[in-house]
User: Fold this.
Amino acid sequence: MRLSVFHRTTFNYGSPATNSINTLHLEPRTFPYQKTLGALIRVMPATRVRRFTDLFQNITHHFELTGPHARLDIESRIRVHNLPLDISDESRAATVSKFGDTSIREQIWPYLQDSRWVSRHPEVWREALDITRDVPAVFDQATALMQWIHREFRYEPGVTNVNTHLEEAFRMRHGVCQDFTHVMLGLCRSVGIPARYASGYLYNGPRDSLVGAQASHAWSEVYLPGAGWIGFDPTNNTLADERYVKISVGRDYEDVAPVRGNYQGTGHCRMEVEVAVEKI
Amino acid sequence: MEMFKGYDPGRFYDEMFGGDGSVRKHCAPLLKKFGKLDQRDFLARKANSELYFLRQGITFNVYHDDRGTERIFPFDPIPRVMPAAEWEHLEAGLTQRIVALNLFLHDIYHDQQILKDEVIPRFYIEQAKHYRPEFRGVDVAADTYIHICGSDLIRGGDGVYYVLEDNGRCPSGASYLLENRNALKRAFPGIFESLGVRPVDSYPRDLLNMLHHISPRQDKDPVCVLLTPGCYNSAYFEHCYLAREMGIDIVEGKDLVVVDKFVYMRTTRGLLRVDVIYRRIDDDFIDPVVFRKDSVLGVPGLMNAYKAGNVSLANAVGTGVADDKVIYYFVPRMIEYYLGQEPILPNVPTYLASEAEDMKYILKNLPELVVKAANESGGYGMLMGPTASKDEIEAFRERIVADPRNYIAQPVISLSTSPTWCEGAMEGRHIDLRPYIIYGKDVKIVPGGLTRVALTKDSLIVNSSQGGGSKDTWVLR
Amino acid sequence: MLSRVANTLYWMVRYVERADNLARLIDVNQQLLLDFESLDSERLRGFWQPIILSTGDEDAFAKLYDTTGSAEVIRFLTNDPKNPNSITSCIALARENARTVRDQLSDELWEELNSLYLFSRSDEAQSLFDADPPRYYENIRRSAMTFLGIAASTTSRNEAWEFMDLGRHLERADKTTRFLDVSSYLPAAAEGQDAISPGVLHWTATLRSCGAMGAFRATRRDITAETVVDFLIFSKDFPRSVRYCMEKVDISLHLISGTPRGSFSNEAERESGRLLSDLNYGSTKDVFETGLHEYLDALQGRFNHIGGEIFETYVLMPERVQISPGPKPPTLSDAAVWRMEQQQSAS
Assistant:
């Protein structure tokens, strides 16, 4: 399946901002099931834009705007080609014991630890244990955790924000895809399943009914021995298949925030986001 | 295949045949269909397509011809065929280019970061003939300057596509691209079957969507018009065609009036406010108050309304600086600077006469180079070193030395060839490609573009004013 | 719609209509000539002079030609590029107008007019004109008719259509009066030479110029000055009668402005209403009391008045700036610009 994404973020500053420094995670790198056909990042006001690869091999863009500006416009246009998931029966049946293998140990290590917004809080750990008690395979454990979140949590925009920690969301039992994903990461890591945060977009047909389609989306990825990183989306209770456009991955939101910046200024800043995902 | 018997692809890159005379894979199905026609049938159909152009009045006016002669733009019925992957590559490259060009224009008409960072020497911008410093600080709709771009692409002997120039003012020819397809469909209905040729008819719709997108009144259904210099303009047919396909009014300068920084058109019911003007008049003629005082084509006071943001123009004022062939030299650097990417489509290697090293090289190698004036187009103001006489070369040498800022030089690129019907036989003729890029909310490029063909043997000049014709361009699925 | 476009559509149709009418006039009279045994040059002059006079182009003709023979008059009216009102000039002007509003016309409509134009300039047309004039004129008439037919079947009934209809009916009314007026210029009949005085032969030709022969016959009346004048001016039903045309003009004007018929919102409507009521309640008695020529002349004046007021209301008014419509003769290169003015110079 081939998908295109248009994503625009506009900042309107109450009074002109200066010395704005920004980092973007908007261009997808190539993943096993996803190939980038094209990507274009446009920053207005026009300025020099530098492109790097970060610690997690994600593509980032960096730019600075020193002069006063009342508005900042960041647009990305990307096109990807996605392949359907292909998970062997052997991978589906694998258990956590496989993670002891030294060849993958190093690779998955960071995704078993606490991170900025995710902790293995005792409450989380106990819940995860209860859910996965009689389930041997990693794949089925992750599925059970995902289903549990989808069942127990209510999707509700506006009650959490970008700085909501997993523990808070876990207590409140509601939030948005970012919170659902953090909870999923906490549950998985608590029972020794390597899990990472994936940021991107979701295509859901010409008309959107699934949650998260008209904004950037987040879901979790679980490492399945033999198959690699496979996406589990607790918000929609589904595997991240061909409809998912993945931009970057990290330990949690902190590592992959699509647009993050600082600026000097006094006024209030209003942000507008527009996302359109289409099939091509 | 009978008609292609004895076809000699020659020493150039041929779009249909490999160097060894074998048919390129993506052209085989088409050749098979053409092969079924005998020559008489083919000629009858070709004549049929020409009649279509004449009856439709798809003609261009020849200037300085008192009889008001109208000629049809010669049409060759053998299409140029492009495989899907090739087109995707071009599409990505052109998109990248138009975004970078627009960032550049916004930058030089605002903060001039790229000049402050010394990526482009300030001198080149300030001395660009079409740079309009009086428009610095003016905000344009959607921060976009070039809404419609016609970039000319050529393909060298190595099969690589190069960008030859960008036309960011009022590129013309899109109607020929649409009508070429119509004519070919009428004359050869059978050959389209099951070949998977991508349609081109979305162009007017894309154009209209773009015009709506830049309207200053987003809460209202915008009133868009096409501003033409009038029916004696060589592209007048195209203006009518596009206006009609879009369902918008075509207006002349005298149909518009500016009152209190708003633009209105004169209708039978009184004055009607205009939001967006798709103008097909150059900057110089658009407002006699600001630009050329002798212009009778324009709308007095239009620039006041434009600066006040009450009307949007496509393309914006001041885009001509991007057409400057010296600025063209810097486009790859713009792409790296603003987008942090490598250019997908390369420029033709270019030497700037105002750079000492380049100048030395140019003067030494004049007979091998193509020299171009920075602000001329349509094949004018050009020296073709290899075919020029000694006197012509010397005359150019003097002009270059006298005004280095306005000259560039490039090696001669042997344009690719395509089989073309030439008075009784199929022969290779040089071609280029002009895709039309529309930059509205999104970048839209109609698959393919206008393939222009130099009908004179061995000529590298494809412009219609210099005896060029055109072909339909097929992008395969 | 744009004022300029309204004006251009109006003129486009007027020119086609004019070419069509001229083709009829010449064709009919050329054939009429065959009915006369022989005519010396003086008598021939007597035959053609009234036709030139009735078109109002006698000065232009005198400048270009010394004698008023068949060849000269026919060339002047048919394909003399120096006569801006010749058939081929009218076709070129109609097409030039069409070109400037190409976006408003259906493909078929444009194609038909363009083909007519291409035909009128072709070698084929020239050889047909030399060898078989009736077929030449028939070609022109057929194409003009096809044009109107396509227009009727492919144009939305909106403002554009109404302006085209206005042009058509004003031109038709004007031409009908001019055909009738030919009789006013006929020389007094010489002794025993009643052939070209306004007799049955003449009025038959007038009817045929208007394509009215069949329709007139259906009224079962004798062909006399009174019956023909009555039919061509006052017929309620015949599409080329002055009254019928004015009814259509009145309807179009009111559709354009949205004013109910019987009232008026501008000078053009007032004049068309007044003229229509004169025609509705008038009779041939009024005509001959006033004198045929004087009556027709007055009608033509009133048509021009209406045309001028349409221009004033819909083309000049929107900008509320006076562009003086100086009386310059139409030329091809003027065809694209504002051009409501030229009709006023014709009479």
